[in-house]
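User:
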Amino acid sequence: MRPTGPTTAHPSPFQGKTAFYFGSFNPIHLGHAWIARTAMVQFALDRVLFVPAAQPPNRAESADLLPGSLRYACVEVAIRPYAGLAVTDLELQRPGPSYTADSLESLLGVPLASLPEGSVPFIAGADTLYTLPSWKRAAELVRVCHFLQAPRPTHRPTAIGSVALASGETPLATTLLEMPPQGVSSTWIRRQIGVRPELAKLWLPEGVFEQVAPTLAPSYS
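Assistant: Predicted structure:
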């Protein structure tokens, strides 16, 4: 995978558009909210749409996945204070694994094949993009999406510029979000909330701890 530096365009080519933010949000934390709000400002977006997955096909920790209805409720609570942030339960209403390409087509209402190259703003962490070659219909996603990359401390401070698809090394349309690397993770929060809930609570948007505590820290609630 080839790294590339920040390539922010001014004015934003996505002004007034919706960016899509797929993930398990297991649970949503402050890092997710900061990433979405940074994308809103940096690209003059009209909206960021969170798309919680019902059953992420690439997640090894599926056994630790909180119920979809709970994760959806947590996203609703977390984004309530912020204009322009929204959430859909599209994937939660579908049986079986959640596939991003299929869901994106449903949300856009048109086949991906009909869309121009790099026309769909898509928020993702650098760590997520490393798994992109294993996604269903990965080549279609690479063609139509412009990836708004959230920097992660475990990766280079530059955007991933290409991925190795079956057809070979393929460049990405991408821009690095102008924000500090985000090290907090939902995995860390789930572990902490059972043993040090007061610490985990610091990294959750207001109201989310109260949603997840009965499940992850029943003794605290």
